[in-house]
Amino acid sequence: MGQIYIEVDAKAVNNGIMTLETSGGGAEETGYWLYWNGDGFTGTGWYFNDPNCPLSETWPAYLEKNDGKCEQGVEHSADAQGLREHVNAGHADDLNEMLGAWDFFKKSAFVGQYGANLEDRGCLDRITA
Q1: Taxonomically, which superkingdom (predicted)?
Q2: Of 4, 54, 115, 128, which is the most exposed, with the fewest CB atoms less than 10 Å away?
C-alpha cells in the first residue's frame, strides 16, 4: 500500500476548499494521509479522469519517460488498468514521481470531494493537533 500526505493549509480554506468536518469538537485538522493499493485510492478506482487527480497526465508521462517499461521490462498501458498492473506488481510505493507534484489546491479539492468515501473505506486518515 502506498500513501501521500495532504497538508491542511489556511490558503486552501480561504479559496473555498474546506477541510473534512471534525468529529468530537475541538481538534484542529492539520492534514490527511491518503492511501492506495492496486485497485486505487478507495479500492474501487483511481479517479483517473477526475480533473483534480493528476494520474491521467502523470502516469502516461512516466511511461513515456521509461519507454513504456516500468519494471523488469514489463510494458503497461497508459490507462488506469496499466497503473493497476504496475501497483499490483509490487510498486505501490513507486508513485512519488506521479503524485509528488500534485498541485496543493487540486489535492485539497480531491479530498474535499471524496473525503467521506475515502475515509469510509479506510483510505484516508485525519491528522489532528
Answers
A1: Bacteria
A2: 128
Amino acid at 52: N
53 in helix, strand or coil?
coil
The b-or-e profile of 63-94 (16+ CB within 10 A means b, else e) is beeeebebeeeeebeeebebbbbbbeeeebee
Q: How far is CA 117 from CA 30, 43, 79, 92, 124, in A?
A: 19, 11, 23, 21, 9
Whole-Å CA distances, 77 to 66, 90, 119: 12, 17, 29
Q: Which three cell numbers stand for residue 17?
A: 476548499
